[in-house]
Amino acid sequence: MKLHCEVEVISRHLPALGLRNRGKGVRAVLSLCQQTSRSQPSARAFLLISTLKDKRGTRYELWENIEQFFTKFVDEGKATVRLKEPPVDICLSKANSSSLKGFLSAVRLAHRGCKVDIPVSTLTPVKTSEFENFKTKMVITSKKDYPLSKNFPYSLEHLQTSYCGLVRVDMRMLCLKNLRKLDLSHNHIKKLPATIGDLIHLQELNLNDNHLESFSVALCQSTLQKSLRTLDLSKNKIKALPVQFCQLQELTNLKLDDNELIQFPCKIGQLINLRFLSAARNKLPFLPSEFRNLSLEYLDLFGNTFEQPKVLPVTKLQAPLTLLESSARTILYNRIPYGSHIIPFHLCQDLDTAKTCVCGRFCLNSFIQGTTTMNLHSVAHTVVLVDNMGGTEAPIVSYFCSLGCYVNSSDMLK
Ligand SMILES: [Zn+2]
């Protein structure tokens, strides 16, 4: 029985000697071996750790020799086996979690002296070819190279499968827990499974040139919130992104070119880490008021269907304010937590998409809406011209929660 993973063997004497471990594992093949001798007819089980430098490997006896197992992060492919003699901690990482679980239970049996009911390996040096399982990068750019019968190496950190005619995301990719970069560009993918959100290390996702029509709320609320930095959704058929999209707070690079976007998510200003934004050749008539809060290095909005700002504002002021409006304003102004477990779902949606007045307060249904133009240089260092006329101005919506706010800021609208 073998396990491919990264291993670091740490002596527990090191801290006493004032030394520290390197904190970095090396690629290794772990084998569970048995050796019988004449004096001891019952098989003794060993753990053999072989590395590329040391293919014969180092042996560790297992029978009644394990002090403790540390398995809190076994689902992330990590575990530690603490041996009694020699006093070392064997730290395993980057393993396939299900193989790791199987291997650890076999090690546990060997420690108790039970017979291990699985084929154990013999004490022979590990072949160099076995280390090829540690591939971290794989690039496939044609249908004929796409693996149909073989699995992807579990250790992959960067996987590209482009021009493979994929109509959906291959479930085998979603088991690659070490994946940091996934490039599925130039395929025919229509929908993304929510389980992409289980790839906890995923930093870069490229879906350029597919048939996507949406980006789901479930994905916006997955672990991608903590990991995803670069997202390329260009050349798809996306009309709108959900308001929850702005919870992907680690995003620094977002490409939305060549879609059918008719609006940006209204809370786009919450993407505080965003530096590169391109949404060229969409159908944006104007920008949401929160767009002003962005702080970008690069912005490309070329070829959108921006409208001329309207002369007259749209007035939807209520007098007096409805009970719904006043309570919504109070909840948002005082940042009172809400959720669908307390109030009806449609009210949560209303609160999520409430408009922000120039005064910083919020409004739901009672407001004055005006359009003005903004120079895009106020939110980005480098701006690609908006049109062929050489302009860097685009229309932006502004909301006013009261007549007072409107009058005070009406200079803005001139
Ligand atoms: Zn106001």
Automatic annotation (TrEMBL):
SUPFAM superfamilies: L domain-like. Pathway: Protein modification; protein ubiquitination. This is Leucine-rich repeat protein 1. Component of the probable ECS(LRR1) E3 ubiquitin-protein ligase complex which contains CUL2, RBX1, Elongin BC complex and LRR1. Interacts with CUL2, RBX1, ELOB and ELOC. Keywords: Leucine-rich repeat, Nucleus, Repeat, Ubl conjugation pathway. Its main location: nucleus. PROSITE patterns: LRR. Residues 1-120 form the PIF1/LRR1 pleckstrin homology domain. Substrate recognition subunit of an ECS (Elongin BC-CUL2/5-SOCS-box protein) E3 ubiquitin-protein ligase complex which mediates the ubiquitination and subsequent proteasomal degradation of target proteins. ECS(LRR1) ubiquitinates MCM7 and promotes CMG replisome disassembly by VCP and chromatin extraction during S-phase. May negatively regulate the 4-1BB-mediated signaling cascades which result in the activation of NK-kappaB and JNK1. It comes from the Eukaryota. One of its GO terms (cellular component) is cytoplasm. It comes from Colobus angolensis palliatus (Peters' Angolan colobus). InterPro entries: Leu-rich_rpt, Leu-rich_rpt_4, Leu-rich_rpt_typical-subtyp, LRR_dom_sf, LRR_domain-containing, PIF1/LRR1_PH. It is found in: Nucleus.
